[in-house]
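notes to self, project folder thing:

trying the whole complex as one job this time. last attempt i did each chain seperately and stitching them together was a nightmare. two parts in total, labels are on each line so i dont mix them up again. if this works i'll redo the older ones the same way
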Amino acid sequence: TQLLEQSPQFLSIQEGENLTVYCNSSSVFSSLQWYRQEPGEGPVLLVTVVTGGEVKKLKRLTFQFGDARKDSSLHITAAQPGDTGLYLCAGADLTSGTYKYIFGTGTRLKVLA
Amino acid sequence: EADIYQTPRYLVIGTGKKITLECSQTMGHDKMYWYQQDPGMELHLIHYSYGVNSTEKGDLSSESTVSRIRTEHFPLTLESARPSHTSQYLCASSYASYNSPLHFGNGTRLTVT
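result (full assembly):
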């Protein structure tokens, strides 16, 4: 079974600071997705990265897929309190032939005003 | 807008009771999933389904059972609830393609006393 490790696990920063969250695996994924979850709600998709080396931007969020498709990063510029939440990466497990989604260990972000 | 619905949102129940958590989606998705999540932590897959009459166990062992008699409906049942079952249960759905994103409900927060 493929595993996804995220770092850091917790992050508390001041409004206006930049941050990067990492999602790493020893296995290759055909694609990776990033979700954000707010308290009391289900995760919501932010982006899907498919091609090795791909970079996608969503306003102040920049997502990158590693060249070898084993890792991904999420960079937030000038963080705002509204960015607070649990960030999860996820990939389809192709090794078992079932294509079920595996989620990363999560990064809990708190942005202080 | 919510295209995947979970009821109840909150449930407090005594040990030994039988419970069913409901999940319905209106998007015509073939694949549906149940994840278990402790607050702010990673998601663990407990059941999934590729379509009607298809159900599979996930990576996390669970005493719950599921059924998929209709495409839009994927209920989860616990025959005899125990305090160890206290958690948040998230239902999700997706199209059949392995890169299709997951759409999550807002979860059921279960407390077994």
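what i see at first glance: The longest strand of chain A covers residues 85-93.
need to look closer tmrw
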